[in-house]
Structures are given as C-alpha cells and as structure tokens.
Amino acid sequence: MDALLQVSVDGFRFENGSGSCCKPRNNLESGNNLFPSFHEPQTQSSSPNDSPPSVCLDNSPVLKYINDMLMDEEDFVGESRDNLALQAAERSFYEILQQQSPESDHTTSSSSGDDPFFTSISTTTTSADSAALVSNGESHRKYRHRDDEEDDLETNRRNKQPAIFVSEMEELAVKFEHVLLVCKANQEEDESSITKQQSQQPNRVGRAKGSSNRSKTQKTNSVDLRSLLTQCAQAVASFDQRRAAEKLMEIRSHSSSSGDGTQRLAFYFADALEARITGNIAPPVSTPFPSSTTSMVDILKAYKLFVHTCSIYVTDYFAANKSIYELALKATTLHIVDFGVLYGFQWPCLLLALSKRPGGPPKLRVTGIELPQSGFRPSDRVEETGRRLKRFCDKFNVPFEFNFIAKKWESISLDEIVINPGETTVVNCIHRLQYTPDETVSLDSPRDTVLKLFRDINPDLFVFAEINGMYNSPFFMTRFREALFHFSSLFDMFDTTIQAEDEYKNRALLEKELLVRDAMSVISCEGAERFARPETYKQWRVRILRAGFKPATISKQIMKEAKEIVRKRYHRDFVIDSDNNWMLQGWKGRVIYAFSCWKPAEKLTYNHVSI
C-alpha cells in the first residue's frame, strides 16, 4: 500500500503541500506514461496572418469537459464498488476463519449446539439473536470489543483518500480527454438547442414541476414564509427558545425541500436556525467545500446544472479568459497564478484559444493554489487538475508547466511562488476570496494578507470576481435579513430556470452543495466557524485599492460579447451591466456577482530588476 502512495512521477516534488509537475521537455512531450500520448491529428501552428480566435463565445468546452468527467467518474465508481464488495466479502470470510480459535469453539459448544461459524458472525445479527447465541458474558465482551475495533478501522479507512494504480490512471486519462476536439463540430447543434430553449422561456416563467407544484405555490401564497422566518430569527436572537420552537414548527408545516423556491428556502433556513439554537452543526456543512460523503459524480452533475441554468460562471470565465488572452497576444511565456484552481473548469476555453493564437501559442505556466484536503493526501485534487490540464495542452501543442501549492492562502509566502523574469504574469481569483477570514476574525486580517501577496507577485494583470453580498454583519439580525434577500433571489432564479425533469432531479443537490452551505454558515455560525464572509463590490474595491492596485478597464468588446452570451443563452431576467470598471451580474435587478480587472499602482522592482 505504501508503494502505491509513493508512486514516483517525473517532475513532482512533495514538500510542505506544494510541488510542481508537467514541466515540458525540449520536444514538448512529458516522457512519462502518466500523461499518455494521443493519436488524433495534431493541430497545426497558426500563421502570423491568421485571424485571432474567439475565446469562450460558447460554453460547450466546459460542458463537454464536465460530461467527460462524469462518464469517467461513473465508470470508475462502478468498478470501485465491485472491487470493494469483493474485498469486503474476502475480508469477512478471512475473519470468520481467524475467529475459529479453540477458545471460541469451547464458548460456542457450551452455549448451544449451533455451527461455530454462526457464533463468530453473531456481531452482525440483531441484538436478540446475539443474546440467544452468546450466553457467556466474557465471550460477548470479547466479540463486542473486536466489533468496535473493526468499526474504528472502517472509519479510518473511509477518511483516507483512495490510491489508484498507475495503469488504472492511464486508462482513465485516455477517456478524460475527448472533450475539446469536437467542440466546434457541435457548436451549431448547441446554438440550435439554445434557440429552441429561448423560444420556450416565456412559458417557463413561474412554472415548476407540473400541477403538484402549482398546488404547493397556492399553499405558499397563503402563508408568508419570509415573515415567519424573520420572526423565528428574532426569537432566536432574543434567546426566546419557546417562541423560536413554535415558529420553527409552523415553518416546517409549510416548507419542503422539494417544493417551490420559497418553500425550499424556508426549509433550509429553518435547518440553519435550528442548528443555531441547538449548536448541532454537522461537519459537512461547516466547511466551504462539498462534503466527503458526496460523490464526485453528484458534484459534477450539480455544477453542470448550475452552468446550464445560470449565466454567472460562464460570463465571468469568458471575461477573465478574454482579458488574459488579450494580454498574452505577444507574450512568449504566460504565467497564471490561479488562487482557487479546484477542478480547472475555467481553462479549457483559454487553452483552445491560445493554441490558435496568431504566430503560435506561448509557453504556459500555471501555479494552481488550493486549500489542503483532509486526509493523508492534501494536494491530491490540485495535482490531478494539473495532470488533466497537461493532457489538454499536449493535444493542442501548447508548451505547459504546472506547479501547485495546497495550504491556507494567508500562510503562503512569495518565495513559494516561482516567478521568472520576462514572463507575462496574471493572478486569477474567481469567486473564492470571500472564504478567506477578514479582520473580524483576526486583527491582522488574513484577507488583506492574501491581497498583499497578490500585489507582491507584481502581476501584469489581476483578474477578480466575487459575490456581491451584504450578509457579513457582526450583528445576527442584520446578517439574517440580508442573507434572506440574497438567497431568495437565487432560489427564485433556480425556480424559474430549472424545468426539465432530469435537471429537476439534481436541483436539491445543487442547492445543498452550492447554496445551502453558505447560508448555513451565515445563519448558524459565529466567529471563526462562520467561513462565508462576502462583501459588496464597492467594499472589495476599497480593499483592492488599499492593497496597491489600480483599476484596469474592461474592453468594450468584452462587455458587448458578455451581454450577448447572457441575452442569447439564458433567461431574460438575468441582468448584466457595468459600473466604474466593474462588470455586474444579477437576477431581476438585484446585483449578485461582480467582476473586475486590476493592475499594480506602481511597478515593483527587486534587486534593481523589474519583475
């Protein structure tokens, strides 16, 4: 087992949660079977006279990327379950044989005349059967102690990250990467489906899952659930537990996790209020990331549904990638320091565009930065993201190098980020900085520390996007009311845009993993336990200016194309506008997300050499 966990991979080093991989050789090939070669026709380098490619004008690369990951994960999960079932059966049989000691046989014969195998597995039967089969108290304690040890061992096994054979990873890698090669061939089909979907949108407004949902809506209209939630929150804030319990019961009777948007909002907010009263906050909802009990397949399905029904991520990724592409038009080396790289969903479109850049692609260096995972392999996810990006770059002949850091962002020093002279450097942080603690948690403000690190990197461009939220007040009721307004818009958005039966099945998972987690943090937690701490885009502006940046203008072409994406592909109630070098997105007039670009106010020099 240790040998599997310590597979030697060319180009990797594992020191303090950071490392590097995927460094290109002179022939631009990895030279390692972990990155298999592909036999599709290679794309030819663009000539200097070629016109610049469009960047992310359709989101099919991202959706196909997710589809591909889903197919791989479902196949792998199925195979893993079969293997685990076989291993469990073998282990159980082995344990049965081991338990046939003379002592156990003696105990069995003195208790009853049954088969000794039956006694050895009595710990898995009902309590009544156990009492009948094991009459000797000492023997019963022995088996119970053994069962407790097995439970502890099984718990530890579930907490470990799975180790995969290199040969299995090679097979998975081949299937992972059939993503971008067919993007353009299916673009017309995607646009046709989008047009058809738009023609149906007027009928979709206000409609949810058939007549049953209409009856639920009528039931909701007779009760003001938002008012009940506010009254319950006021009782919680004043420590009136009796009144709070009464209001919770009333809310429960009118809410549902499968109802309309208002009912679902009330259901989850009631859970958060109850958790605040009892202090029973489960670990899966006490962190900003999906729980370990949620499979990767379900996470990808939820993310795919979010991209399909909501314009936020697609538009922010487009604006970020197009801004980076314009900056790198003449660069020989492009270095992207991505704070919050996660699964790398942002980058397929940019990789495709760079491969078609007039004059050929630049060398691409990516430093992927993530928070550490729990368990023995804290950097496992970010490493796999690097390998996946490497395989994409191999397909499109883009020279590529990947470095990674997996630790708390405020503890990262500038020395850990390798920045080479002469390269075009970009700091990228999309929808993740709100999870870094601010000055209400620590006087030295980890959030400002991270922004200072962004500035010390001295990038040519800092690309930033974040939630526009006002539910970060230290006062509970103020925070609750703002969270109620914010999440009401999101639940209404999904209530309007999620209509297809197959999409509706994944809605609960989407809400639980991408929305409810933040709401639970804001309502039920205080102090350092409250990890979701959003700010308005005007507050972010003050912080970023104070860190030593100045605004960079978003080009009119980017704004025009972003508006076209929202207008052509998404519901008419999505809004997109600009304000003082910010691109703002929202729903029915409420600004929910904000995007901006920045440059250092002054160019820093180190050892009299401009970096």
TrEMBL record:
Motif VHIID in this chain: 334-338
Domain of life: Eukaryota
Annotated region (Disordered), positions in chain: 32-55, 99-159, 191-221
Transmembrane segments: none
Low complexity composition-biased segments: 107-135
Region (VHIID) residue spans: 303-368
Short name of one Pfam family: GRAS
Biased composition (Polar residues): 32-49, 194-203, 210-221
Renumbered residue ranges of the record's region SAW: 524-599
Keywords from the UniProt entry: Transcription, Transcription regulation
UniProt record similarity statement: Belongs to the GRAS family.
PANTHER family (UniProt xref): OSJNBA0084A10.13 PROTEIN-RELATED
Designated name of the protein: Scarecrow-like protein 11
Species in which this protein is naturally found: Camelina sativa
